[in-house]
Description:
This protein has helices at 56-60, 170-177, 252-266, 310-327, 358-363, 372-384, 387-394; strands at 5-11, 22-25, 28-33, 44-49, 63-65, 85-90, 93-97, 102-106, 112-116, 147-154, 160-164, 195-201, 204-210, 237-242, 274-279, 300-301, 334-335, 345-349, 352-356, 401-404, 407-410. By secondary structure, it is α/β, with parallel strands linked by helices. It is elongated.
Amino acid sequence: MFVDSVTLRARGGSGGAGVSAFLRRKGLPKGKPNGGSGGSGGNVVLVADPNVPTLLRYAHHPDWKALAGTHGEGDSKHGKRGEDLILPVPVGTVVRDKSGITLADLVEVDQELYVARGGKGGRGNAAFVSPERRAPTFAEQGEYGEDVEVTLELKLLADAALIGYPNAGKSTLIATVSAAKPKIADYPFTTLTPNLGVVSVGDREIVLADIPGLIEGAAEGRGLGHDFLRHTERARVLVVLVDPSSLQTDSPARQLEVLLAELERHDPALRARRIVVAVSKSELLEEESIGALGLDDDVHVISALTGDGIDDLMYAIAEEVDQVERETPAMEGFILHRPLRDDFTIRRDGGEWVVEGTAAIRAVNLSDLTDPDAVDFVAKRLVESGIVDGLIAAGAESGDDVRIGSIVFTFDPDLEVDPEDYL
Length: 423
């Protein structure tokens, strides 16, 4: 089954927790802090793989999660980092977020997109030792990994795309000139999915795509071809195949007019592509009737059944592809580098202030907030991160309740905190 559009839900692995531990030995009754840090969670990574033809596996299995990091231990033993989860996708996959923003266009082999990053591992108490804090009794919890939903959309990479009405002979042609084995029958919309074939032309090869049949109104959703018009977008050359047989109600000239108009409605840039026009099923035409088709003289007249005109058409397509390659730079991939989500937001919810965001969660993400040292450390983090100033600017007053995650505390902007002690 050919699948070219799916919704993927990905979650990075959670970070492991740090631990608070002490080395007890003679002459050192309080012990030396030696709690290890937790390992970071694994990332979910999309990789463009030429051996993956469709997005089928993600239609059957849309939910993926990377491995979590393990927790730290005493004796300064750090947790193991969670392994990245590598998800192969076809070359030519476009990745968009829920708002429709394009995050990546993976057109290069092995191109990668970190679609969901793992959470940071929590630091153990040994990491918080400072001249002012000789024996910290707290550690950090691990952070949750990113939880995202993206749309994957495949746009085939082909040198040339075959375009025509249903039953125009596209599938027969690609089966004749390549090893592709599309379904062929004498009823409309035989081809339900695009087919790719590699064609040898002289000393080079070109990739030919058979696009499901288009009808008038395809760009607006009529017929089946509108779902696959996106696969024409990357083709260097468009090959328009018109059918003179009685299977079509429109004349060849009218077919050409409709097909070019539908391509332009889908994407105006397609009309500027190099276009090769061919008349199929020449075995059904009498020689004197070819000139009455209403087409220009430079069209190719072919028959996949007898082989007439096929070689000339393939060489013409290859020549146009070569010309485009000389005139245009190689296609490059696209990766949107998103800013790190370390910001925070503040909003009023009933009788309390709610602070959300990675920076806010990180500020209170300690193992034991009943520990006076931990409370003091959190206060310093809230000052250093700008959250205290943000609350004041939003209108928070002394005595107001502030919620961060599941933690609720009483706001005291006058609390004396020295941010120089912040780690």
